[in-house]
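[Automated response] Your request has been received and processed.

Submitted sequence:
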Amino acid sequence: IEEIQDAEKFIKLIRQATLEDHHSGLDDELRENIRTPPQTPLDIDDPDILFSIKAYISASEASQETYQSFRRAVQERFPSVNMLSYYILILNG
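Generated structure:
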């Protein structure tokens, strides 16, 4: 019974979730970026950034650790490649 009550509370929290919710952990700047995303296409001139984004998208079904492992392998083989970490906060040219 207690597990059912916990599940119901969790479902209620999800249904009532907003960007302002203290559970979201979003700061004001990130909330604003979510509300007003860039309206122009992103122009990526840096081949390392483009490679990083393509690798990130390719690994979208994989775990964060899989991406990080791939990133380490790339950096070992190609030290000059500046591959982005898993966390990409802002890409606005």
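Summary generated for your ticket: The radius of gyration is 19 Å. The helical segments are 2-15, 28-35, 47-58, 64-77.
If you did not submit this request, please reply to this message.
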